[in-house]
Amino acid sequence: MSEPTPIEALVERVERLLVRYEELQRTNELLLDQVEELSAERDQLKQRLLAARTRVDALLERIAEPGDQEGLKDSP
Fold this sequence. Notes:
single chain; coiled coil
């Protein structure tokens, strides 16, 4: 086998670079989809956390009402 000419070597290298570029583009698309999904999941979790905090705050307010604490003092 003879050694490839500089042009043939360059063509081969460019072809490999194009294949790698296409692979990177597909990988990038998959990663962008994953980021989008994770962002949506994060936003949903933030909403659930806010709702839970609101419920906990409401419960704490009910516990801290003055009438409830007087009832606790009277019990043994």
